[in-house]
Task: inverse folding
């Protein structure tokens, strides 16, 4: 990874800067052009008053320059293809390459094509919906949400519509989340116009049932629960939790971020949840793409079906498919109780086609092994590490576990230091400082796709770091030193934001007023 | 491994799960080898008709455009494809610099101060722009032009149910008179039907009333038309798919989101920023994170976490490969082909171009048989166009019954000939064709 040498880059107008790789703008010279599309010189079909007069200062580069630039940049990245990526709650499992190839079969299709020309897409999507319903123990599925957070918003909009249908929308203004919840949960609730109440966890890492019961009431619209939770622990009284929410007239949302642990092992639909989303970019192996894309199908029980986003896929007796709202031989149907549409038609279909490929590859048996192997890997790794690091909640974890570097903090090094020292050991870091209820948290999720040798090597690296800290805690403060860059000044970045390249320091770009 | 853990079997690890819920029968079927799964997916794909398999004029925010060969080779490298969000910047400089460059390129194209690292798509970007305008102004009324793409308006209305916004839809020409008390006026230029819109007038009206101007735009159009930042837009959103991203039946795509510098702390989504490392070497990090859900929870500017970073990297590589002249050429090709085609179709008896004014690279055709039926008749002849009638659902004002014809640099002469001949035949205007 550190094959790239730091080199001085001439910066237009700002002297020289030390950089790993020049910016596109710094590589450019006027007059360089590729020949990717035929040259068209004239603008005369556009009325003069609409034409661009603002200079278009995009860089001019040769294709070899562009290829080398992005190859260099790629080499600066750590990825699943590079090595183990044990980010807790992110399920960075290996992304099978066949999935990318099959998804490309659907690249040249426009979402506004007729159902008549996209029967393959609809057949795939319809079967995927049925598979997801079976895996989660739910009845119906929408494939529209582009990511987990958009799925949360979709579900909460449906909760709102459900309560409205019962004449209770005005009264039910609150969503409850546990203190271990992902930040997206309260953020989605707020976007949906709800007030957010946080309930604490009990000493075993479960939702505190007494606190939950105290928070419930006729003003509660629903409760959002991740299971296994962000401590990697299965909610031991999950049915009592769901029953309590239902008894108060609320609905239970399942955040499926940690669904990998339950694959073939248990189904949210059998545990009392009204709905659950799936992060297919976690659980079903679709690549994260350096931050996205993902897809967040939402699986719901029958009582929530009327509120699902439109359109829905309809399968006819003859095995053909169409949409319920956009069949060509008649005008669009009424939307009814549906919340409308969150993303057009089938959402991030290119991602969903990968997930479908993954599920077809695994089948029933493969899926059951996935959940079991993921939990086995996490428990094995924990067994290797528990003597050297504090364990936040000492129970059998599921697919991930949370260590606390509290002991190391007392010795003079933090979870941050440990995460950076791991980079020097050639591993990506775990999730750190989350969940918020564990001090100096190191949240580790190995996934089922790492070999025992890799798990051993990762544990050995963490143990070496613990030993270094015992001997000389200051020695990790400088880490990382073997990565392309050393620690970055994040405070400075936020205090004096530089959010884009400017040709010269004093030019502020074109402003309309 | 079990011995090290101290259990007898893997089953022992699942004791916390209620017994009656354990090990459900899923019934999704047996697994397949890679070879079998590839063949199965190919058999499904054969049931679809690819856009490139015949004359294709469907467009709007999602467009069939030429993707340079080098683009997927670079963007789909495993180091980009299989990385996570750059939480550890020391080993994520590839992602962070590529995203910073995307922000810079897009800011140049739009002539805006700040661009975020991506939203899910143009539709969610539009909805988030409305929410941002509401936060900035403290007003809850959002006035939207009917020329904003229907999928964007649908998503906006869905989001608006949550935040309980008042969405008012009016023709673009009437936007200005609804500025009083509005959080923002939202206008698309060029609009969903390809028509050019006087954004300056709308922005001026918005600003005079203390409202913001949100412009929905298209990246290729910005290369030829005066860009949103020069027209007075405060927030700019759009669909970035035409910048080298496959159509993939609707996603994954790229939500473009830009704003003026003064508003950046109310912006949704991740933003990459420049900084230095401990040795003083230039580097990049995700910055201004106190806006985001993982820090601010219910007080965050948005719930977005996973975004479309890989699509942003696609767009940046596209712009780097084409350069300003290549981008202008691709855009001009769409414009010139659309105008040539409109001239021919407009000359057919019983057909006319139905745009309200000058258009860009798509236009609407009105015929005596109506757009809905014309579209179906064309489909029977293997020609794919979109009908305006599919742009309306219950609760929306029922509009015109035309077809929309989108052109890009991939629209060929023979595609154009096929469309003109077919429309002539369907509408019974054979004579006019013979006379051309």
Result:
């Amino acid at each position: 990874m550190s094959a790239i040498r730091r080199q001085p880059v001439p910066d237009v107008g700002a002297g020289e800067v030390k950089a790993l790789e020049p910016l596109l703008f710094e590589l450019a010279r006027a007059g360089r052009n590729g020949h990717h599309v035929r040259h068209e010189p004239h603008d005369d079909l556009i009325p003069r008053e609409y034409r661009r007069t603002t200079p278009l200062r995009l860089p001019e580069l040769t294709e070899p320059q562009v290829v080398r630039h992005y190859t260099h940049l790629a080499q600066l990245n750590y990825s699943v293809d590079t090595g183990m990526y044990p980010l807790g709650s992110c399920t960075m499992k290996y992304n099978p390459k066949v999935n990318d190839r099959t998804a490309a079969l659907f690249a040249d299709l426009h979402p506004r094509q007729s159902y008549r020309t996209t029967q393959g897409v609809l057949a795939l999507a319809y079967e995927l919906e049925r598979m997801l319903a079976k895996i989660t123990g739910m009845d119906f599925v929408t494939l529209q949400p582009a990511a987990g957070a958009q799925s949360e918003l979709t579900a909460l909009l449906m909760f709102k519509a459900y309560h409205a249908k019962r004449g209770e929308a005005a009264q039910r203004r609150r969503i409850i989340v546990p203190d271990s919840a992902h930040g997206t949960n309260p953020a989605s609730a707020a976007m949906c116009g709800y007030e957010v109440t946080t309930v604490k966890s009990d000493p075993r890492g479960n939702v505190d049932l007494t606190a939950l019961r105290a928070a419930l009431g006729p003003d509660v619209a629903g409760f959002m629960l991740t299971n296994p939770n962000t401590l990697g622990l299965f909610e031991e009284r999950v049915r009592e939790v769901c029953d309590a929410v239902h008894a108060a007239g609320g609905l239970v949302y399942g955040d499926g971020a940690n669904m990998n642990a339950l694959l073939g092992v248990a189904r949210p639909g059998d545990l009392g949840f009204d709905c659950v989303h799936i992060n297919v970019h976690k659980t079903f192996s679709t690549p994260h793409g350096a931050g996205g894309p993902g897809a967040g199908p939402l699986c719901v029980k029958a009582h929530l079906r009327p509120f699902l986003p439109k359109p829905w896929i309809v399968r006819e007796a003859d095995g053909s498919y169409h949409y319920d709202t956009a069949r060509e031989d008649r005008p669009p149907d009424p939307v009814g109780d549906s919340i409308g549409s969150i993303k057009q038609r089938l959402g991030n279909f290119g991602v969903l086609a990968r997930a479908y490929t993954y599920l077809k590859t695994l089948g029933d048996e493969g899926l059951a092994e996935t959940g079991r192997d993921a939990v086995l890997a996490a428990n094995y790794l924990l067994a290797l590490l528990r003597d050297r690091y504090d364990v936040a909640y000492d129970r059998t974890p599921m697919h991930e576990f949370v260590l606390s570097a509290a002991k190391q903090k007392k010795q003079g090094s933090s979870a941050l230091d440990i995460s950076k020292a791991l980079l020097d050991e050639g591993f990506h870091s775990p999730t750190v400082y989350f969940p918020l209820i564990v001090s100096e948290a190191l949240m580790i999720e190995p996934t089922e796709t790492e070999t025992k040798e890799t798990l051993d090597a990762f544990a050995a690296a963490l143990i070496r770091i613990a030993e270094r800290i015992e001997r000389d805690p200051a020695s990790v403060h400088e880490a990382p030193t073997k990565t392309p860059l050393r620690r970055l000044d994040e405070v400075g970045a936020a205090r004096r934001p530089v959010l884009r390249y400017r040709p010269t320091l004093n030019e502020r770009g074109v402003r309309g007023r | 491994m079990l011995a090290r853990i101290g259990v007898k079997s893997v089953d022992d690890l699942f004791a916390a799960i209620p017994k009656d819920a354990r090990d459900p029968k899923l019934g999704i079927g047996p697994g397949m080898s890679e070879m079998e799964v590839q063949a199965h997916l190919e058999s499904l794909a054969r049931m679809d008709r690819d856009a490139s398999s015949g004359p294709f004029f469907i467009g709007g925010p999602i467009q069939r455009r030429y993707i340079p060969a080098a683009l997927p080779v670079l963007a789909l490298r495993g180091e980009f494809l299989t990385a996570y969000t750059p939480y550890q910047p020391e080993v994520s400089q590839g992602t962070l610099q590529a995203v910073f460059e995307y922000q810079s390129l897009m800011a140049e194209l739009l002539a805006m101060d700040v661009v975020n690292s991506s939203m899910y798509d143009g539709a969610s970007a539009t909805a988030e722009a409305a929410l941002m305008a509401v936060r900035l102004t403290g007003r809850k009324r959002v006035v939207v032009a009917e020329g904003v793409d229907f999928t964007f308006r649908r998503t906006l209305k869905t989001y608006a149910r949550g935040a309980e916004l008042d969405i008012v839809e009016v023709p673009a020409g009437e936007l200005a008179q609804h500025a009083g008390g509005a959080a923002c006026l939202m206008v698309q230029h060029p609009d969903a039907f390809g028509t050019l819109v006087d954004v300056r007038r709308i922005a001026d009206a918005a600003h005079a009333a203390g409202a913001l101007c949100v412009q929905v735009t298209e990246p290729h159009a910005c290369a030829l038309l005066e860009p949103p930042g020069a027209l007075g837009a405060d927030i700019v959103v759009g669909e970035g798919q035409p910048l080298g991203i496959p159509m993939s039946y609707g996603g994954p795509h790229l939500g473009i989101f830009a704003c003026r510098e003064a508003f950046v702390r109310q912006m949704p989504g991740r933003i990459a920023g420049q900084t230095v490392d401990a040795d003083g070497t230039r580097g990049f990090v995700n910055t201004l994170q106190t806006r985001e859900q993982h820090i601010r929870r219910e007080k965050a500017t948005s719930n977005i976490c996973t975004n479309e970073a890989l699509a942003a990297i696609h767009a940046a590589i596209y712009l780097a490969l084409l350069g300003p002249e290549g981008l202008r050429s691709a855009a001009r090709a769409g414009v010139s082909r659309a105008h040539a085609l409109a001239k021919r179709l407009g000359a057919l008896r019983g057909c006319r171009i139905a745009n309200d004014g000058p258009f860009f690279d798509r236009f609407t055709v009105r015929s005596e048989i109506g757009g809905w039926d014309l579209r179906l008749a064309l489909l029977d002849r293997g020609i794919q166009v979109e009908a305006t009638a599919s742009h309306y659902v219950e609760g929306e004002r029922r509009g015109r019954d035309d077809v929309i014809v989108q052109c890009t640099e991939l629209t060929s002469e023979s595609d154009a000939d096929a469309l003109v001949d077919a429309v002539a035949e369907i509408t019974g205007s054979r004579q006019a064709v013979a006379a051309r």
Chain A has a mean pLDDT of 93. Chain A has three domains: 7-75, 97-358, 370-494. The domain at 370-494 of chain A is CATH 3.90.1150.10 (Aspartate Aminotransferase, domain 1). The two ends of chain A are 46 Å apart (CA to CA).
